């Protein structure tokens, strides 16, 4: 490239350099072969300071940069070092400043409003902002809920508290109580034949509890000295965000580091009538009226859990499934959980996709007509429902937060953010945690753990990283499914059929026997690695209290439990979990796994 | 599982973190709460260092037992500058016990025939006020006299307890 002759070119170059200086805590203009430059870069590496380097010999218009730097600083040689917008000088000056402590002072300069800004006040964001503030850092967290197309919105705390784990589990519990009422008669409780459920009462009680949690988070942030702002954040520079509140007021903040924790929102179908007439899990938990006859579209865990508890409340529920249930989970287990739902009145429309939704009658609830198409034959099918719940997956909230201004890489296919094993994005001062991470678990405790450990690594010199292996989890279908480690399908793929042993058994929980329900429907399965002393690499449980049962086995697997150690463990009788201490039928033997008696 | 984790993180905080108290829960001892009120008191005196003679507002008349605080300014005018002692009922929509306490408190205040005023603050509408006065659980009732916090309680009380709480405020 020729030397810059004209004035506009020069001004442009100058502002480009100025921007580099303004937006980086440390910027070094360097030449890749220059030993003095290497010395300076090594110093910053040793100090664990994010140091942005422009190698003038490797970029096209490097000489122009060098001329401009001369004009701007009176220094032509490299390295040319800037710290917090201040020109420091070359190698000698930098080393001298390091020796006399002025370098540290410059680095600690209040160049930014905050040490850390966390975008998103959900499970991950709250955990890491509180941890960072507790470690003495100046922290801001921004949380803003964009209303759903139906206008539903909620308070501080993110998905889990407001429209996820918490209301979901409470409504699942509501359904379990319904089953317990049925069982109760068999145990001698004399209850009137007609037992009714009141949606409004449940909804209000659940949402009141959520209101108290929202307030608790608010108070906790205040106590921990985290500056909370209820506004939508968007990057406008690598170190600067714009925060827009409900009233449209814009405020700007800068920080040395950022953590992205924006979570995900439900995906819509992109068919006529979906946003106008359908709801998602974001609306369901605070729906003012009982949804009535409901079509659930999708086979995600959210779809099965919501369909499950709605059916448990006595509603007419249909689940429309395009291909398989619970993608990513053990398919044998997923189908068993689905079969149980089907046996208990949930209808499944398999291999159908919706093509349009029309309103027949407005109301609370109204009436909707759904047209669906068979994925096999293309044949059309119509159905009438009061409510259509879309649960076909969730999209990461990464497309409207100005990431293009920062250079943070996003997987264009799914909007997810790739990070290294320290939750750092490709831009060193920007980190990401929680549901928006590529290839990681989308679970609250995972987001919390990652957030806390990240804060400790950043501000306490800790080294412990978040372990994403052997994370226990539970799907709260009517018959709950808990798992930890690999699915059978994945284990075979990784180790080969011949190298794994699968132990399994059906069982009948004692509490189901007197009411006489669900005999030999509960199921347990262990997948062991024959090449490694039959170490347990997959744990699967379909039965009551799956979360409670799975949690402890998760710890056992983290400790590297083997089949022999489980066999050596004495069970607690009479429980469901004890089945894992006595599994002796292997799948390969084809032995009988139905259970009878003690 | 997730539920337990989140809740545990909250319940292990000090007692003042407890939010919506079940109706049966006993009042939290004032010692655990006083630290957060301390700052509120200083703040109040700072807010109104040279208090002029407060005006008597029509809202404190016998007919309307309580009034809803509209904003910070309204709070300063009608609560801090009020010449009567004021009971401030910090409440929330989502709080069941608040719905029981509110009417009871109004009844107790009405009995005093205009010798005490009652202000209601919805903590979700006026979060800053609630945070400033260290409200970490609802219902919280703060008694204020001449801009100073003189007493408070958290949780629910029965009619007799409320009567004696109110009398004590007036007696002071
Ligand atoms: C129906 C349902 C049930 C679930 N059940 C469970 C369960 O049982 N167990 C479990 O472990 N997990 C469950 N999950 C998953 C769990 O909710 C998530 O894994 C968890 O909430 C992820 O936390 P996060 O911090 O990544 O994001 P979130 O909790 O989603 O928080 C992100 C926050 O950031 C805000 N935000 C986004 N963009 C911006 C912006 N630009 N500016 C400001 N704020 C912004 C959002 O509004 C939100 O409040 C469930 C999820 C759903 C939907």
UniProtKB/TrEMBL annotation, chain A:
GO biological process, alphabetically ordered: cell redox homeostasis; cellular response to oxidative stress; glutathione metabolic process
Sequence ranges assigned to domain Glutaredoxin in this UniProt record: 26-87
Domain of life: Eukaryota
Keyword Mitochondrion (UniProt): no
EC number: 1.8.1.9
Ranges where the FAD/NAD(P)-binding domain occurs: 114-451
NCBIfam families assigned to the protein according to its UniProt record, in alphabetical order: GRX_euk (TIGR02180), TGR (TIGR01438)
GO molecular function, one term: thioredoxin-disulfide reductase (NADPH) activity
Name of the protein this chain belongs to: thioredoxin-disulfide reductase (NADPH)
Pfam families listed in its UniProt record: Glutaredoxin, Pyr_redox_2, Pyr_redox_dim
Keywords: Disulfide bond, Electron transport, FAD, Flavoprotein, NADP, Oxidoreductase, Redox-active center, Selenocysteine, Transport
Listed PANTHER family: GLUTATHIONE REDUCTASE, THIOREDOXIN-DISULFIDE REDUCTASE
Classification via SUPFAM superfamilies: FAD/NAD(P)-binding domain (SSF51905), FAD/NAD-linked reductases, dimerisation (C-terminal) domain (SSF55424), Thioredoxin-like (SSF52833)
Domain Pyridine nucleotide-disulphide oxidoreductase dimerisation: start-end pairs: 471-582
Cofactor (UniProt): FAD
Cited PROSITE patterns: GLUTAREDOXIN_1, GLUTAREDOXIN_2, PYRIDINE_REDOX_1
UniProt entry tagged with the keyword Transport: yes
Function: Has a glutathione-disulfide oxidoreductase activity in the presence of NADPH and glutathione reductase. Reduces low molecular weight disulfides and proteins.
Family of this protein: Belongs to the class-I pyridine nucleotide-disulfide oxidoreductase family.
GO cellular component terms, A-Z: cytosol; mitochondrion
Automatic annotation (TrEMBL), chain B:
GO terms for biological process, alphabetical: cell redox homeostasis
UniProt entry tagged with the keyword ATP-binding: no
Family affiliation: Belongs to the thioredoxin family.
Pfam families the record matches: Thioredoxin
Source organism phylogeny: Eukaryota, Metazoa, Chordata, Craniata, Vertebrata
GO molecular function: protein-disulfide reductase activity
Protein name: Thioredoxin, mitochondrial
Cellular compartments per GO CC: mitochondrion
Residue ranges annotated for the Thioredoxin domain, each copy included: 42-171
Gene3D superfamilies for the chain: Glutaredoxin
Cross-referenced PROSITE patterns: THIOREDOXIN_1, THIOREDOXIN_2
Keywords for the protein's UniProt record, in alphabetical order: Disulfide bond, Electron transport, Redox-active center, Transport
Highest taxon, organism lineage: Eukaryota
Organism of derivation: Scomber scombrus (Atlantic mackerel)
